[in-house]
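Structure first, sequence second, as always.
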């Protein structure tokens, strides 16, 4: 085995390791294995029985001992992590349903976790700028954290990126470049530009190994919030799938640390039927994912990743799903819309379509009897509803007819009439 240079993270030996072959090396601004070209991951020499795996801090830096940041590096933070694990009230169909409210992060999506870690590593490596390809949420996070870090941000976005996300990026001063094509086209260009200019590539597939380390903190939080145990199911909206893989990694690390006795959670990957390369491979019983060459046809733009040019990323996610005895499931546009409305009406939560897919998947799995009444289920609600006004408008249209009625000042009777009509409307 190659010589393993010790990393400098807070108390745990840390290194980069190839996901495919046995190559290992020092932490650095590196995005693929020098031997076989596969994606990398951060590996730790974990000490079983270690009890001081958390700090007194809140948020993702509570898990600093299990992150690759060096001891003397100040984190780039906007207060990400420590998101609520909310018990569902009206949505529950089977099992004990818990909602992990990732839209509570500073820029409105879970991406703040991976970007906070990757941006901190970019400073640690002395890099001068951060570039990303993004369906929107990563770009928003990169723009905000780069502003905080004092670095320029370059966001490459596909044509279909929702306007509110572009506005968020613009408001914090990012350079936004629209790429004519899909997310996969933006991905390729970000990779080339990062290499050419020596920038940090903060694209949230598997390309940047430090981003998964941020993602995995969601898993540690779930473990702690459940009273130091794993749920039976974790349902995750998936583009390429690093969030899903990283959450599973968290539970594996907890096992190595001797903190988790029972088995790990079963991971469910959810995609929109209009772009579902991972689900297609899962259902076909295939070992490898192939890119989605059909038309990308979904309003869930944040998870619409055809994986063109990097379908191995999909294969990496598929193998985690299988390893965890999990499932990959696709949901239709109608199911996404219905679950968006169910979540809003029964729990009071507004999420974007790319997050509502998790609700739709839960409802299907509960109906089909996969989830037993005694099981704990965690849904990752990954992005805020305010980020996609067009989807929000479509969903709200069914409900706006009465609210658009105007009344004269002082007309108490009209208020009562409208309320009565609206309640009648709701109950029919
Ligand atoms: C709201 C939302 N949910 C889920 C995902 C999918 O995450 P991953 O990149 O881990 O597949 C994304 C990715 O952009 C997202 O924006
Ligand atoms: Zn390799």
């Amino acid at each position: 085995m190659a010589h393993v240079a010790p990393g400098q993270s807070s108390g745990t030996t840390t290194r980069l390791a190839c996901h495919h072959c046995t190559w290992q090396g020092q932490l650095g601004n590196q995005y693929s294995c020098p031997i076989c070209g596969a994606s990398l991951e951060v590996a730790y020499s974990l000490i079983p029985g270690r009890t001081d795996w958390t700090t007194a801090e809140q948020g993702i830096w509570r898990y600093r001992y299990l992150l690759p940041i060096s001891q003397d590096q100040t984190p780039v933070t906007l207060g990400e992590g420590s998101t609520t694990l909310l018990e569902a009230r009206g949505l529950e169909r089977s099992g004990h349903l818990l909602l992990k409210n990732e839209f509570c992060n500073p820029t409105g999506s879970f991406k703040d976790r991976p970007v906070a870690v990757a941006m901190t590593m970019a400073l640690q490596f002395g890099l001068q700028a951060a570039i990303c390809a993004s369906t929107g949420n990563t770009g928003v996070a990169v723009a905000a954290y780069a502003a905080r870090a004092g670095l320029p941000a370059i966001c490459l976005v596909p044509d279909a990126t929702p306007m509110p996300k572009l506005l968020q990026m613009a408001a914090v001063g990012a350079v936004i470049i629209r790429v004519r094509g899909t997310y996969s086209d933006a991905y390729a260009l970000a990779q080339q530009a990062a290499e050419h200019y020596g920038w940090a590539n903060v694209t949230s597939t598997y390309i940047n190994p430090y981003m998964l380390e941020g993602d995995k903190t969601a898993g540690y939080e779930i473990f702690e919030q459940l009273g130091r145990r794993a749920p039976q199911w974790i349902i995750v909206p998936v583009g390429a799938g690093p969030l899903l893989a990283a959450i599973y990694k968290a539970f594996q690390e907890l096992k190595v640390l001797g903190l988790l006795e029972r088995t790990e959670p079963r991971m469910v990957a959810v995609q929109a039927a209009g772009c579902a390369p991972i689900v297609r491979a899962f259902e076909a019983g295939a070992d490898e994912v192939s890119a989605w060459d059909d038309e990308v046809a979904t309003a869930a733009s944040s998870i619409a990743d055809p994986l063109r040019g990097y379908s191995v990323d999909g294969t990496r996610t598929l193998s985690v799903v299988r390893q965890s005895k999990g499932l990959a499931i696709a949901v239709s546009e109608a199911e996404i819309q219905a679950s968006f409305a169910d979540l809003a009406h029964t729990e009071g939560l507004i999420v974007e379509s790319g997050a509502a897919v998790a609700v739709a998947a839960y409802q299907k799995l509960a109906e089909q009897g996969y989830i037993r009444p005694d099981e704990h289920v965690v849904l990752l609600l990954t992005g805020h509803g305010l980020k996609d006004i067009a989807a929000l408008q479509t969903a709200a249209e069914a409900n706006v007819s009465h609210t658009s009625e105007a009344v004269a000042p002082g007309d108490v009777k009209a208020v009562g009439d409208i309320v009565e009509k609206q309640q009648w409307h709701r109950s029919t």
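Margin note: The chain is about 40% helix and 15% strand.
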